[in-house]
Write a structure and sequence with these properties.
Arc Repressor Mutant, subunit A, D-Maltodextrin-Binding Protein, domain 2, 46% helix
Amino acid sequence: MISLHQLEMIVAIHRAGGFRAAARELKITQPTLSKAVMRMETQLGYKLFERTPTGARPTPAAEFIAKGAEPLLEDAARLMAEAKRRHDGEEGLLRLGIGPMLKHVLLPDLVRRIRDRFPGVHYQITQTGADDLTRLATERKMDAVFVYHEVARKEDDLIRARIFSDDVVVIARSGHPLQTAGVVAQDDLRAFDFALPGMPAHVMDWLEFPPDKGRSRGVALESDNYEVLLDQIGRSDCLTLAPRTFFADLIDAGTIVTIPTFKPPLTYECWMLSPPEFARTPMFSAIAAIARDMFRGVNG
């Protein structure tokens, strides 16, 4: 079987009209090229070039091979160039997964920034729960997923990049009874119902809800839609918990307020998880840098 490299030698000699010029084009020595051609001729069982004092004359077989090999070599060059573009993130499909909470701060700005950096890439965006996203990334059905740290700590072979961290603050409507109460204790918080994006154990432990209170445990509304949560706290005395970053604009505008607590706040961390093969590409580092820059801008 003749390799592409050997075909490249035949085409170069055919085009240059001699071994010396072809060797310069191929960036090898003339003796190396001559020996390689002799090995090919032995392998094929017939001559490819007639050596003359003025150069090398291709045999009919070499003429046929050279003409047929040129489009093959061009196709191979295009194939390798496209493979590099895909590796560099300049072409191909990018499969991103974003959890229901993070979509409020990541979309659509993150996608817009990635598209500006990689205009030739097509995108597939999946929004689902953090556990599902981690599973899809582990199964190689996602290239990069954004999840919170409790999920990111689970054991798997995914590569992790921390995007940002923030304090989880207690949020209420402007004019809430606790707004003027100063720094409050957990008992003060539990006097009011909560509207939460979920009820993970570490959140319920922080609120110090008794485990024998039933599944709701003082939670009047559970929703992964922050618009629904904001509507609930805006129309009632319900409280919610969220990273300050998520509601920074509304807090700065005074539409909603944060309630300071004696107990140190929980920490929220956003991580990007990817299969190892994607994490080795330049796009992994570029996306992580874009996402971090977004949150640096939000947090000043």
